[in-house]
Amino acid sequence: TKHGKATFSFSAPNIWKRFPESPMLRTHQIRSDQDQDISIRYSITGVGADQPPNEVFSIDPELGKMFVTKPLDREHRSSYHLRAHAVDMNGNQVENPIDLYIFVIDMNDNRPEFKNQVYNGSVDEGSRPGTYVMHLSAFDADDNTTANGMVRYRILSQTPHSPIPNMFTINSETGDIVTVAPGLDREKVSQYTIIVQATDMEGNLNFGLSNTATAIITVTDINDNPPMLTSRTFSGEVPENRVDLVVANLTVIDADQPHSPNWNAVYRIISGDPSGHFTIRTDPISNDGMVTVVKPVDFEMNRAFMLTAVVSNQAHLASGIQSSLQSTAGVTISVQDVNEPPYFPTNPKHIRFEEGVPAGTSLTTFSASDPDRLQMQQIIRYLKLSDPADWLSINGTNGQIITTAILDRESVYVKNNIYEATFLAIDNGSPEASGTGTLQISLIDINDNPPALVPRESQICERMNKNVNGVNITAADADTDPNAGPFVFELPNYPTSIRRNWTISRISGDYARLALRYQVYLKPGMYEVPIVVSDSGNPPLSNRSVIKVKVCPCDEHGDCTTLGAVVAAGLGTGAIISILICIIILLCMVLLFVVWIKRREKERQTKQLLIDPEDDVRDNILKYDEEGGGEEDQDYDLSQLQQPDSLDHIISKPPGVRRVDERPIIPESQYPIRPVVPHPGDIGDFIHEGLRAADNDPTAPPYDSLLVFDYEGSGSTAGSVSSLNSSSTGDQDYDYLNDWGPRFKKLADMYGGGAED
């Protein structure tokens, strides 16, 4: 092997699988030309020998025979590259290493595998032969350059067999499924199930491996079935003057896919309804056509309608499909006569009248008509529905309108010179029906309102000159032109002082100026000036009005001063001075009262109590300047001053004997509310008030009253007062009690060695 390169081929994977009893297979022998002279040792290196995967190949070190020690899998590794080595017994290299390329020969050990076990496809119904449906593919892990990996397809079965068992075929090499025969009809067969087999070895069933998958083919709907009405004629009834009412129902049959555009029905009226009284709406659930009234019908105009309706689908019919004769039907709608309300031919009705017409004047006849001409003659009666000012009445038989009061254009019920009233017309049908009519009266103005002076009050300076203006006046008239302005303003001839002191000058047609005559002086005060105002009516109306003019002293700007305004109000100088004096006196009285209150408060705070300050016990906290006696003065038995724990000795007393210093044993009751603690300055009143409350309370113990203890009683837990003794066994000097202050004066008198002893 001087070539330095050798190539070997091994094939064994399936042999190891089929013949597990032959774990190794001798494949080739490597020999050196020098093995006749020296002993040679052979070895191999590379992937599959001393590199992972290890020990797939081995070699006899003496003979150079190579072996496969593990099964080979071409799909895992298709080739190996090894190097063979030859050395002598000392490990010296005898030959250069040679490359060994080992190729694993493929065997058919893998079945074709489909990616999915179930494939879904679709095809339109009515498709022509050769129409593509869907594609299936299978993968074979074997070498696809050999027959082991060449897959072929075929259809094993078709379910159902309608209309023929072989509606589809599959391309054996590509896996494309196409139609092979006509006759696909979704309304008959909506779905086909096909079993497809994939076989390797180029489809050789004897040597190849196979696998199967399921193809589900859905036949999709096309609009190949026109909608058909279930009847050639339909009928219905409709009451007149009704809308949005279903009067007939058209039923339809469509074999296409429900609730799809191929199935949804669309209805149209093609004749018999030129005025558009009806429409046909589709019921989204049942697909029926609902003939609906959209415009009121009149029995007197049309007693019946003969409609022609046609139905179609939302989607157009498929190519080559013709409309059915049953897509058109006649619809007869009968109109039912009902009692219709009377109506006013002219509504609203306009009339014109002058205001001020007297009551009882006939204005017009507001009559109604009965639309039920084909019924027997009906009687119509009239009623008033709305008359805001109550000016009108209507004749219940013929509808004549008569005034019941004077019409006044200036009334609040008249808007824009128009008065409006409404009336009812009621027939005697069954049931009764009524209609409403509106009467609008345009009132023409007459001169019936005199003008009124504006303003009614004003003020003017007491001295007038040519440079100061007077009072501008005008007039208000409820009438309109030409019965209102321009106005004429005049001063009356009586009293004569009016024309002597005042003058009126015209400014414009509606305004004039009232002023004092030049160099006329009037005392400050309120003056009533009468003025006669006349309008421009025919004949004109006049009104004597009075304007109150306040004459007052003015400042340099021509405005009334404050004092002048008071004087003008009618108060003299003496009255004003009197008012000012009263105000000053009132302020002084208020000031004196405040001073008296402050002084009384100060006296109350400095007022001495009823008792000596040293004996003042109103405070809860007392200050003692002296420490007091020693411990010998504090050794008291305080238990004698406490309330007994038991009352048995009191309860067991004989009747008629009771200590007045004991609390009475009677049921507790609610004490009356005593007044709050008063101001310290009224402590005397407080003591007497408390004493009075205690005397009037039968349940209160006599703690706050003066008691005379002339009988000690028996059964007391305390010993006799005479038993009180000093804790000291010997004589003791109590003279130091005199030094403790006035609070211990009584004890000093009792125990001390004073002069009273």
From TrEMBL:
<feature type="domain" description="Cadherin">
    <location>
        <begin position="345"/>
        <end position="453"/>
    </location>
</feature>
<keyword id="KW-0106">Calcium</keyword>
<dbReference type="GO" id="GO:0042074">
    <property type="term" value="P:cell migration involved in gastrulation"/>
</dbReference>
<dbReference type="InterPro" id="IPR027397">
    <property type="entry name" value="Catenin-bd_sf"/>
</dbReference>
<feature type="domain" description="Cadherin">
    <location>
        <begin position="115"/>
        <end position="229"/>
    </location>
</feature>
<dbReference type="GO" id="GO:0016342">
    <property type="term" value="C:catenin complex"/>
</dbReference>
<dbReference type="GO" id="GO:0005509">
    <property type="term" value="F:calcium ion binding"/>
</dbReference>
<keyword id="KW-0677">Repeat</keyword>
<dbReference type="InterPro" id="IPR002126">
    <property type="entry name" value="Cadherin-like_dom"/>
</dbReference>
<dbReference type="GO" id="GO:0034332">
    <property type="term" value="P:adherens junction organization"/>
</dbReference>
<keyword id="KW-0965">Cell junction</keyword>
<dbReference type="InterPro" id="IPR039808">
    <property type="entry name" value="Cadherin"/>
</dbReference>
<dbReference type="GO" id="GO:0007156">
    <property type="term" value="P:homophilic cell adhesion via plasma membrane adhesion molecules"/>
</dbReference>
<keyword id="KW-0732">Signal</keyword>
<dbReference type="InterPro" id="IPR020894">
    <property type="entry name" value="Cadherin_CS"/>
</dbReference>
<dbReference type="InterPro" id="IPR000233">
    <property type="entry name" value="Cadherin_Y-type_LIR"/>
</dbReference>
<keyword id="KW-0325">Glycoprotein</keyword>
<comment type="function">
    <text>Cadherins are calcium-dependent cell adhesion proteins.</text>
</comment>
<dbReference type="InterPro" id="IPR015919">
    <property type="entry name" value="Cadherin-like_sf"/>
</dbReference>
<dbReference type="GO" id="GO:0044331">
    <property type="term" value="P:cell-cell adhesion mediated by cadherin"/>
</dbReference>
<dbReference type="GO" id="GO:0007398">
    <property type="term" value="P:ectoderm development"/>
</dbReference>
<dbReference type="GO" id="GO:0060027">
    <property type="term" value="P:convergent extension involved in gastrulation"/>
</dbReference>
<feature type="domain" description="Cadherin">
    <location>
        <begin position="452"/>
        <end position="563"/>
    </location>
</feature>
<keyword id="KW-0479">Metal-binding</keyword>
<dbReference type="GO" id="GO:0001841">
    <property type="term" value="P:neural tube formation"/>
</dbReference>
<dbReference type="GO" id="GO:0030010">
    <property type="term" value="P:establishment of cell polarity"/>
</dbReference>
<dbReference type="GO" id="GO:0008013">
    <property type="term" value="F:beta-catenin binding"/>
</dbReference>
<keyword id="KW-0472">Membrane</keyword>
<keyword id="KW-0812">Transmembrane</keyword>
<dbReference type="GO" id="GO:0005912">
    <property type="term" value="C:adherens junction"/>
</dbReference>
<feature type="domain" description="Cadherin">
    <location>
        <begin position="32"/>
        <end position="114"/>
    </location>
</feature>
<dbReference type="GO" id="GO:0045296">
    <property type="term" value="F:cadherin binding"/>
</dbReference>
<keyword id="KW-1133">Transmembrane helix</keyword>
<dbReference type="GO" id="GO:0001764">
    <property type="term" value="P:neuron migration"/>
</dbReference>
<feature type="domain" description="Cadherin">
    <location>
        <begin position="230"/>
        <end position="344"/>
    </location>
</feature>
<dbReference type="Pfam" id="PF01049">
    <property type="entry name" value="CADH_Y-type_LIR"/>
</dbReference>
<dbReference type="GO" id="GO:0007043">
    <property type="term" value="P:cell-cell junction assembly"/>
</dbReference>
<dbReference type="Pfam" id="PF00028">
    <property type="entry name" value="Cadherin"/>
</dbReference>
<dbReference type="GO" id="GO:0007498">
    <property type="term" value="P:mesoderm development"/>
</dbReference>
<dbReference type="GO" id="GO:0000902">
    <property type="term" value="P:cell morphogenesis"/>
</dbReference>
<feature type="transmembrane region" description="Helical">
    <location>
        <begin position="575"/>
        <end position="597"/>
    </location>
</feature>
<keyword id="KW-0130">Cell adhesion</keyword>
